[in-house]
Amino acid sequence: FEAYHERDEAYRDRCKQAWEALADHCDEMIGDAVVDLGELCASADIAAIDAGIERFEPYGEDVDEQMDALKKHRDVVAEQNAQAIGQLGLLAASDDFVAVSAAVDKYSGHASADVRSACDTVSSRRDTMIEDMRSNLRDACEEAGISELGEVLLESEPYMSALESEIGALRDRIAVLRG
Questions:
Q1: CA-to-CA distance for 77 and 8, rounded, in angstroms?
Q2: At what angle do helices 2-40 and 46-56 cross, to 10 degrees?
Q3: Which of 39, 113, 31, 28 lies closest to 69 in space, CA to CA?
Q4: Minimal CB count within 10 Å: which of 54, 112, 124, 131?
């Protein structure tokens, strides 16, 4: 009987140790989940947020507060992304070079693939606008008189950062003609 009792006691000790190890592991997993969920609450990447929601949903009530915060954050990010995509959609046909360039600078590295895709369209629009202005500057330098050159110079001012040398050549041409 005593051998049975010692074996039973050893078995209970092993079970208790296993249970404690399992509980410690669960606590560690929940702690890691809380940290990961907190980091996702600072993310603008909807896909990563959605993956986090799916990954941590099974953790249940242990992370309810963090999951609620993440879901609210996701809604805010989704609204911001929708607004950015809408703004970029309007700029895709805009002739306002300053607004188009500012939007490309602002959104080209965005966390959302959808926003980056909309930004690519606006970036193409910006490139087209630059090439059109470059062509206008080149044509004006070759064919235009002083008054036309002055008009083209005014139109080209917003493009200074992209066409500095071409605008400089136009100014030089005006100076030569004024002579």
A1: 57
A2: 160
A3: 39
A4: 54
* pLDDT per residue of the chain (179 residues) written in tens, 0 to 9: 676 767 788 888 899 999 999 999 999 999 999 999 999 999 988 999 999 999 999 999 999 999 999 999 999 999 999 999 999 999 999 999 999 999 999 999 998 889 999 999 999 999 999 999 999 998 888 887 888 998 999 999 999 999 999 999 999 988 988 87
The pair of structure tokens assigned to 136 is 């206008």
pTM, two decimal places: 0.73
CA–CA gap between residue 8 and residue 16 (Å, rounded):
12
Locate 33 and state its tokens. Answer: 């989940």
Give me the numbers of helices (H) and strands (E) for the chain, helices first please: 7, 0
Euclidean distance between CA atoms 113 and 170, whole angstroms: 40
- Name which of 83, 66, 64, 73 is nearest 44 in CA terms: 73
Fill in the amino acid letter for 144: A
**43: which DSSP letter?**
-
Q: Are 126 and 97 in contact (CB under 8 A)?
A: yes
